[in-house]
Design a protein that fits this description.
The complex is a heterodimer of chains A (147) and B (1155). Chain A has 147 residues and is an alpha/beta fold. Helix content of chain A is 50%, strand content 19%. Chain A has helices at 2-8, 20-33, 45-53, 55-58, 76-84, 88-91, 105-112, 127-144; strands at residues 12-16, 38-42, 63-67, 94-100, 117-122. Chain A has a 5-stranded parallel beta sheet with strand order 2-1-3-4-5, sandwiched between helices. By secondary structure, chain B is of the alpha+beta class. Chain B has 36 helices and 42 strands. Chain B starts with a strand and ends in a 6-residue tail after the last strand. Classes of the chains: A alpha/beta (147), B alpha+beta (1155). Chain A binds chain B through residues 18-19, 21-22, 24-25, 28, 32, 43-44, 70-73, 100-104, 122-126, and chain B through 937, 940-941, 944-945, 947-949, 951-953, 955-956, 961-962, 966, 969-970, 973, 976-977, 1104-1110, 1113, 1115.
Chain lengths: 147, 1155
Amino acid sequence: MNELRDISTISQFIIIDDDHPTLFICKIIIQRTFTDMKVVDYDNPHLAINYFESDFTQHPITTIVLLDINMPEISGWEVLDRLLMLDNNIKKHITVVVMSSSIDPKDQQRCLNYPCVSSYLEKPLTLASLKGVTDKILKQHRSLNPF
Amino acid sequence: MSNKYKILHIEDVATDAALAARELKKGNIDFEQYVVDTEKEYRKALDEYAPDIILCDHSLTTFNSSEALKIFKGKKIDIPFILITATLSDEFAISVLKEGADDYILKDRLKRLPSAVVNAIEKYQLNRERKQLVKKAKEKESLSQKRLKNLTNKLLLATRTTGIGIWEYLYNKKKLIADEVTLKQFGLECEDFKNCFSQLLQHVHPDDKIRVNREFQKSFLDYSNIDIEYKVVWKDASIHSVKAVAVVQQDRKGNPQRIIGTHQDITERKKTEEVIRKSEAFNKGVLDSLSSHIAVINSSGTIIKVNKLWKIFGNNNSSPTAKQWGVGSNYFDACIVEGDNDTSSMAVVGIKKVLEGTLENFYLEYPCHSPTEQRWFYMRVKKFDSDDASALIEHQDITERKIAEEKVLRTSGELQQISNDLTNILDSSLDIICTIDCQGKFVKVSAAAEKIWGYTSCELLGTSAMDIVFEDDVENTRKVASEIMDGTPVTMFENRYKRKNGSIVPMLWSSRWDDKDKLSYCVAKDATEKKALEIEKERFQHLFFQAPSCMGILKGPNHIYESANPLLLQLLGRNADIIGKTVGEAVPEMVEQGFLDNLNVVYKTGVAFAANERLVKIDRHQTGNLEDNYLNLILQAYKSNDGCVAGIFIFAINVTEQVLSRKKVEESEKRYRQIVETAQEGIWMIDENNKTTFANEKMCEILECTQAEMVDTSNLSFRDEEEQKNAVEQIERRRKGIKETHEAKYRTKRGKQIWVNISTNPLFNSKGEYKGALAMFTDITNRKTIEKQLAHSESSLKEAQTLAFIGNWQIDLVSKTIEWSDELYKVFALDKEKNIPSEELFLSCIHPDDKEYVQQQISEGKKTLKGCSFDYRLLSGDGIVKYCHSQSKVDFDKNNQPVRLYGVVQDITLRKLSEIERIKIVHDLIERNKELEQFTYIVSHNLRAPVANIISFTDALGDEAYPESLQKEFLAHLSASVSKLDDVIRDLNDVLVIKQKVNDVKELSSFSTVVENIQVSIKNSIEQHKINFYTDFSEADNVFCIKTFLHSILYNLITNSIKYRSHHRPTVISIQSKRKQEGLELIFSDNGLGIDLKKNEDKIFCLYKRFHSGIEGKGIGLFMTKTQIETLGGTIRVSSEINVGTTFTIYLPFHAANS
């Protein structure tokens, strides 16, 4: 029963973006939608990857990642590549929502090629767009759950 | 036992052990004590210490006495074991003794220990000794039994193998027992025997039966021993001799019990004895019948045996003492009495020597004259081989022989005399007279040898006759010698001998072999003079016969052939039977030809006749056909001693062949001249002065003049002025002996210009001097005209090819020749003179990258035999690349066989280059377009990011759900986003401005000045971060460019290096300029953080790309730098290593293209 609930509900949000105003507003919007939801933000993608590769593997919980693409040092693509390499049992807890200001259609297509990416959002994040992607995710989870 | 007792004491309490030792000492026991307290030590001591007795404490800490006892028993050591214990129950005592202990002592009663020890040891010792004795006795007994048995067996075996049977007779039982060997000797089997004597007796030979029966019966009754030989008859009637021996055996009381004995077959022995007896009788008979007197004496000279003759001699001998010469008398004494002193003593000494063994045989001939007659004896003494004590003496009467010998001696004296006389006669002979034995050695040589050979006869005696034969004659001489020895007498055999002084002398031999004497009798003459005559004659004959001319001698007025040499005979076709015939008889056909007249004149006048090339017809084969012969003939008269002509010598040399061949040459010359006159080619001969000596009709026709006109005319007069020089050179070459064929222009007498093909040969006389030339002319004017036309059209083609850069080629598949046009050589940049066209040559011109492709195309073309076309590149030696297009076709003959491959090669470099340029332009345009697209995306993203934030915060500000505290923050973020948007727009402006500035004024800018200006403008930052600069613009300082760009480029790079410096080391920025072809290179490097180029190489110069989070930056600097450099027509490259540094290499052209 525990596991079932784990998959069907969202346990935390993780935001990865080098732009501080974006992190700030996203956090507020998420917490407005999901009261008391755990939201962790990373302005350095390295730290986020570290988290997924160490602590998260110990206690995997259902997580939605909001990921920016254009970042210095390592891009969102690289973050996706690293997530792809995680163990399947770990990976299944992670759903990624790419959030970018790019209007290049190639970027959008490339994102959706990653199995863990659920949606591609153009900035800015709004209450409505957040609801849209989370509903979609929850629906997907439920369809995976036979009960 | 006087030795010390060795006591092994098992005790773990030292005092107890000492106590035991004290008691033993008290008991006056001589001992040594070895104390052990563990099992290991105990086991070791048992093996190595060899104790006489073991004392053992019952209770030990590590193990106990019963274990010790078990170990000890297990080792099977035969010594006593005494237990020493503190307390002991009866049961325990019994059990200990049962386990094998010999005694036990209570610790409180140790006084008993000494006696117990002594008792125990002695008991064991006694026991051991007894066992030893018993064992020895047993061994002895078994040994003797064994020996006895062995002996018996051997005896039995021995008797059996030697064929000795054993038998016994038991008196009380009256029973005869015999083994199978015994029975066999009676011809009986074991089964047949019934143990009674009478049965055996039946087989005894009738002659012996009574004797045997008596002997045995006597023994059986009287207990006497038996020793008897007798014969038995077997069932097969064969008779065998046997011997029985037996002794009586008595029991202890002396009563005879049985008789036991052996039985042996002695047939063989008997037979041998018989043979010996017979041989003795025979020998005696032989001795007696010998003609010699024979006696045997022993070592002291006593006569042991004599034969009959000896006795008779002794009896008959008139000597009064001779009767002493019988058996038993001493031979030495007899000798001394009998003979004269010398002979006797010699005989005695000789006999004694033989007896001693120093001489094997002794012979002596001695006279023994009786008063009535003279007698001689021959004595021979020989020692017996086997018997060393006696010798045999033989006397033989040799009187008759002696008398004969004396007669011989007398006769030989007379003979000697005769021989000497003969020798004198021989020696006075002038010829060598000698005898040679069968080995070829001189036996006798007469004195003439010294005169002829230089050797005295003494020197030659005994030497081999062959030794002084001249080497070359040895073989032949040997052959003749062996013939002589086979009985063929030889006379007049010639050979040569070497004199003592080394000179050679020819010899003439006659010799005969006397088989009786085994000698060759030889007479040898010095043949020197004869030889010389012979040589003279031979020389003359040789001359006559071998002379290279025909020679003959005619005799008398009738001209009779006296002699004719082979050549003459050959000439006449006759054989030697013409000798003795007249000329008329021998060669009748010559008579009519006046030959006989010639001879007659010569004979009459004595004047020689000579004629050259005289035709003489001879019927050489006597068939009636006369053959022509040309002779150089001399007939010379010769005179006899009286001065009259005696005959004629004929000398003739046959010159028929020379005459005939000369005639043939004359004939052929005539014919040749005819050919020359009628030849279709012009023939022209000139002399050394170029004057015409001969020209045939055709030649005249070519030159349109008559033969008469031509003679003495110089050939140069038919050449044009421009040709004169060539003509002179040609003549010069003739003088050098060169013959050649060439084409030349001539002018006829009528002034017509003609082309001729001339083949000329220089003419030299026998001294090698130039005597003119001979030339063959062919008129080729027509051909030349056609050729000219062809050349014209060819040159037109060439021109066309040159204009179109097209070369053509062809391969004649039949003649395997390859031809390339001039233009083809030009296309391939090859020198026509130095290169022979071939496929390899073609391939060698091709660009290495295209070679394989071209080879493939060629082989494909050859295989399919269809025309093909393909493009490829050429690479010339100086590195220039050309583009070519090839096209080829194939010609076939009637049978559809390929005969010719041909094709063209076109230089399409110009077309190709423009095509490449076009492709490049298109490619560049696409690239530029892509860049622009990318730029658009990037710009849109960077514009959109702050806009998105503005939207977000504006929305949030409008939402009253957010508390007031947040509202303020929203406002702050909103304001920040707005100013960021402003920044982006400004950047964009900067970038776009660069593109506009392309047409700005370019001026000469100095790197050093620009760098100095920058250093001043950011002085604070440089000082604060302690930045070190290293600049080197010595190679190139000035560049012609937009100064603001240069400033901006260097400013961006320097500020980047400061921004991304390493905090672990002092920052060093190095800037260097280098002169390059048509530009210069600026090398800018730092030792800062570096960039991971593996990941970011393609992004480093992109807009809004940043590589270091945490360090402030917009990601626009390098993009701007690159844009500016490219605007200046240059390039920028980067190399970097993380935490080592970054190097930018910038290339700026001197004349920037305004693209």
